[in-house]
Design goal:
Layout lengths: L1 H24 L38 H13 L11 H13 L3 E5 L2 H11 L7 E4 L6 H8 L3 E4 L11 H6 L5 E5 L10 H11 L2 E5 L7 E2 L2 E2 L6 E5 L12 E5 L2 H11 L20 H8 L2 H22 L5 E3 L13 E6 L9 H10 L17 H7 L1 H6 L2 H9 L4 H10 E5 L8 H16 L5
Parallel strand pairs: 2-3, 2-4, 4-5, 5-8
Antiparallel strand pairs: 1-9, 6-7, 8-9, 10-11, 11-12
This protein binds pyridoxal-5'-phosphate (PLP).
The site of pyridoxal-5'-phosphate has 14 residues, from helix 4 and helix 5.
């Protein structure tokens, strides 16, 4: 039995190596020299690699199931969650908690609202500092500002595009209360280090898992590692209802506070107990979510399979380096399939030239986020606001402004980031993935002409 197991493992290793070698053989011979069969770039009048269009998200999941679900809610007359404890929102919350591997879930009107509710429920506000990433959806920062806490940004790791744990520790002071790590692209942050830092400095952790449902790190799903996990169901996200969000957690008291906060300060018993906006998810959003949830896990797996295929095809290719995975990363939400563009391997052609040539081949990759938040107008805006000047010392606001330098984030935004949209594109066929790789390699072969 032991012997059989062992030989089987060897066999698998051998097969995997052969399969990978075969997979690479389509790609690798091109490195470092030109190839005849690539042909003339489409941008110069050659034939494009791909003419087919990609399916559109979220239209592609608007099937009979989803439409039926919305119709049912429309006819039922239960349009607000407070009309029924067994409506679509309550049902979705139960189902989503189960899928995310947690006990409790609260729906909200957006991911931003989920984050803002979490900050408020933890009683963070004026005078408090919360550490997060300059590279995210602005909702992450907005959620901190809404409570009038100070969003403290830390620079990125160049290869993972995630907040760099080394930089986090440098920015912790006596007013720091929490870290909001952003699992950018749906890929796990270095949560082992981040949780260790949080424990050491007694900080709370709110995971911004808005791009990361189902993704796993060290046997845990993202959103279940910190104190709370926040998700988004905005139109572009993998599970989508136009605008929507959720908070997940296991701490009953804290989750109860979250419910009260997003319910304009009114608790589950109907008592008006605290400060809170009204961030409730409505029943139509719940219906759209319930109408698609059955297929969500399979779509997540398909995205991971296609991403693994792309990873294998790009392995060893120096021109585009896929997003770094920290040890313990088991999967990603793959909101985007992100790569680092290294122009020194493309005859020093700027990213924009590469992307333009690629687009002519029928493959549209994007630079994604144009600027890190440290370079946006809100920084000067809050420094000039009467309330921020009243709540924080002049010395702190001065150093805050001085610390808004993020050279790695700038490099990622201005020169290196290249993403394939992941939510719809990574549901494509192997042929679709080959189109992406073939177009990249065709441009690479012709790099001296860019
Ligand atoms: C989408 C997103 C948000 C905000 O979610 P909304 O539902 O759009 O408010 C926050 N953080 C990240 C990383 C996101 O991708």
């Amino acid at each position: 039995m032991k012997f059989n197991d062992l030989s089987r493992r060897n066999f698998i290793t051998a097969v995997t190596a052969t399969t990978l070698a075969t997979a690479f053989s389509n790609v690798i011979p091109a490195y470092g020299n030109t190839r005849k069969k690539s042909g003339k770039l489409a941008i110069f009048g050659g034939t494009p690699v791909r003419v087919k269009v990609w399916p559109k998200w979220p239209a592609m999941i608007a099937d009979e199931n989803l439409i039926e679900s919305v119709l049912k809610t429309t006819k039922s007359g239960i349009w607000s969650r407070i009309q029924s404890p067994t409506g679509t929102v309550a049902t979705f919350e139960k189902e989503y908690a189960r899928l995310m591997g947690t006990q409790l879930c609260i729906g909200t009107g957006s991911g931003t609202q989920a984050l803002a509710t979490s900050v408020e429920a933890m009683d963070f506000g004026p005078g408090d500092e919360i550490i997060t990433s300059p590279y995210s959806d602005f909702g992450t920062v907005s959620a901190i500002l809404t409570s009038r806490a100070l969003p403290v940004l830390v620079d990125l790791d160049r290869d993972s595009f995630q907040l760099d744990p080394e930089e986090i520790e440098k920015k912790i002071n006596k007013n720091t209360k929490a870290i909001i790590p952003v699992h950018i692209m749906g890929m796990p942050c270095n949560m082992e280090r981040i949780m260790a830092i949080a424990v050491k400095h007694n900080l709370k952790v709110i995971e911004d898992a808005c791009q990361a449902n189902f993704a796993k790190y060290q046997a845990k799903q993202l959103g279940t590692i910190g104190d709370l996990g926040c998700f988004s169901f905005q139109a572009s996200k993998q599970i989508s209802c136009g605008e929507g969000g959720a908070i997940i957690g296991n701490d009953e008291v804290l989750m109860d506070r979250c419910f009260t906060v997003q319910n304009h300060g009114t608790n589950r018993k109907g008592s008006n107990v605290t400060i809170g906006p009204k961030y409730r998810m409505n029943e139509f959003e719940g219906a759209v979510l319930m109408g698609q949830i059955a297929g969500a896990r399979a779509r997540f797996e398909k995205r991971n399979a296609n991403a693994a295929y792309l990873d294998a095809k790009l392995k060893g290719f120096p021109g585009l380096v896929p997003q770094k995975k920290y040890p313990g990363t088991e999967s990603s939400g793959y909101y985007k399939y992100a790569m680092s563009y290294r122009k020194e391997h493309f005859n020093n052609a700027d990213r924009s030239k590469f992307l333009k040539a690629l687009s002519a081949e029928g493959i549209n990759l994007s630079p994604y986020i144009a600027r890190g938040f440290h370079g946006e107008p809100w920084v000067d805006e809050i420094l000039g606001l009467r309330e921020y000047k009243a709540l924080y010392s002049a010395a702190r606001l001065k150093s805050y402004k001085e610390e808004m330098k993020m050279p790695v984030c700038d490099l990622v935004c201005n020169e290196e980031m290249v993403v394939l949209e992941g939510v719809a594109s990574l549901l494509g066929s192997t042929q679709d993935m080959d189109d992406v790789i073939n177009a990249i390699m065709k441009v690479y072969d012709n790099r001296d002409k860019l």
